[in-house]
Amino acid sequence: MKFTCYHCGQPVPDDLDLTVKISGESRSMCCHGCQAVAKTIVDNGLQDYYLHRTSMPVSGQDVVPDELKKLSLYDHPDIQKSFVIENDAHMKEAVLILEGITCAACIWLNERHLKQLSGVKSAQVNYATHRARISWDENVIKLSTILAEIQLLGYNAHPYNAQTSDALRQKKRKLDLRRIAIAGLSAAQVMMLAVALYAGAAFGMETSTVQLMRYVSLGLTLPVVFYAALPFYRSAWYALRSRKLSMDVPVSIAIISAFIGSTWITFHGKGVVYFDAITMFALFLLAARFLEQGAKEKSVEAAENLLKLAPAMTIRIRDGKQEVVPVLDLEMGDMILAKPGEAIAADAVVVEGESSADEALLTGESRSVPKKPGDSVIAGSINLDGPLFLQVSGVGENTVLAGIVRMLDRAQAEKPRIAQMADRVAGYFTGVLLVLTLIAGGIWLWIDPSKTFEVVLAVLVVTCPCALSIAAPAAMAAAGSHLLQRGTLLTRGHALETLAQVNHVVFDKTGTLTYGKPVLQKSIALGKVDAELCLRLAASLEQASEHPLAASFLNAVDQSTLFLVEKAQNIPGKGVSGMIDGVAYTLGNITVVENRSITELGLPEEVQAGATVVWLASENETLGAFVLSDELRADAIELVSQLKQAGIRVSILSGDSEGAVKYFADKLDIDTYSSSMRPEDKLAALQVMQKAGDVVAMIGDGVNDAPVLAGAQVSFAMGGGTQVAHASSDIVLLSEKLVEIWHAIELGRESIKVIRQNFVWAIGYNFLALPFAAVGFVPPWLASLGMSTSSLIVVLNALRLK
User: Which is the CATH superfamily of the domain at 517-631?
Assistant: First the structure.
């Protein structure tokens, strides 16, 4: 008897006796590689992998010394620059592409094993893209060790590359198209013969001619059954091995049983053949899945298109000379030249030159953005007009571009609740379907045995739950891709689903409703220090701050005159503090001087309505005040109006002063607002709204907004906001257009509507078609057409989301 390898399924050579004890039983292995992999799995307590897998992995490989030597190259800092991000002194993070992933159990195995390794802080594998995001402590474990451990499990890992990933996807697409073409050619020929056979049965045809046509149909069906339909058999087999029921189980049963039955009838010359139903069923199913895969890959391709924006080479200026170098060789602080029409190689600050940049693919903003000295540019944007001399501020994984892709990757890895529910329902439905098929077959066997086979076949085909399974994923993928094109990036899987339920939108003020670029209008001395020195002290304290107000102070002074600040500290919701020449200073909102009223402090009354007042205080006295004014975003009024017309409540929670918040609230016609709020106050106010039953969408941009962004059911961070705000939010407005918030909410509602339509259609179709097929009113060829049309309608309905 020929044994197969328990690990990879390949035949075990007769002269080889390699075994591994798995779950108490001795299992045969086909090679030393598989034996090593299986031992690694068992030794790490991961033998449950063999219970849950639905597909066979590739054969195991020995990690030989030469291979280890190659892997050690990935530990070199110069090599890591292109794909590793350093979160702090020792923590690193990288995206790897895993080859050999065949089923969900492979994901489980890799994640569990990697998380057990000392020094690995997190490991997350995306099943759709086969990308693994791993973070580790460099002081405890090296990247080469992690890669070797992955190889020990039988998989290959290497740094993710968008071009390579695209090539693999194109290869799979070609293979799918080849299967569809073969099924299509066979179906067309078989259908012509079937029409002749049906006509011949009605008008008379010689038996020998009928037999000849059946043999020809059999021959034309062979490529479909033994090649085009192979993916269905594999999926069904792996599902059964893991004691699960996938939709491919009834599909495979239908194709195989129809083929065996029709072949038997062909050779015996009696009965009806179903070669036309087999070829049509396979063709339509393959086509529907090809469209489904295309809808899913739209969001993946959108992310990879972003990565392709960055050029491979750039011009570096060193010692006054220009040299063309790979982008990988760039370092922070390098000077580079971006010529007109070229893509900018790295995140940078303009040092010399004036131009404009096209950031459409990154932000959705179709208009070019002016760039002058001091402005930031992002990697991947196109320099349009004049040459720009740039100082590099971010390379490799530390660019805005890479950050966007990381967030998009995280969103794709998370499955929305509604899609998880659909998967569970489809699983139960498949089980119920098989039971009903048996019941219908039993009844027809008793009533009219000659029609049993036809009825069973029709029931299996017509009720295949393909449409039910793809109803939610296809809609979510289409909506996410469309939003990204408009400059709205979903960073969490649940975001779109939750947006549909939002009934209360809460805004931060500075940097959200306003541009967050306030201009310093006035400096007022309130103590013994003159106004100019107060301004220098304030600007010095703001050097380490990311708050939008910081740039206003720094732009108002000669930065070469700033003081050295020690013990600089950000006080969330209040301001900043630090020591200058041994004296402690604090700069911030009214809470900095909360024990004295404005009148007592002598602030003049001519402060502009809506202006923000920032206070400077030492340990003993209030030294000065600064009046800054900001502008309302151009589309803020339009957004608030749209939200209110839709019946959505609108509020402002701000850390700014009462006067400034009231001024903007009045301009926007917002009745509910709170001022001078610390981060904990905002979070408490949000929780009160949630307890009252509100589904809140929070919009913010700063470090102090992070807790409330994380606490809201769904949250938006402005594209120009802080990294902390981006990481805490569910959606990032790359375009910084507030009206896109309303568009996202509308699309979220429309997506849920489309998903529900898809569910109603898929379930209704199955419940309607099942009784007709069970009573013998639906022939197998019509069942094929009905099932495939059902799946196509679901995909096309999802693709109209925009």
Answer: Calcium-transporting ATPase, cytoplasmic domain N (3.40.1110.10)
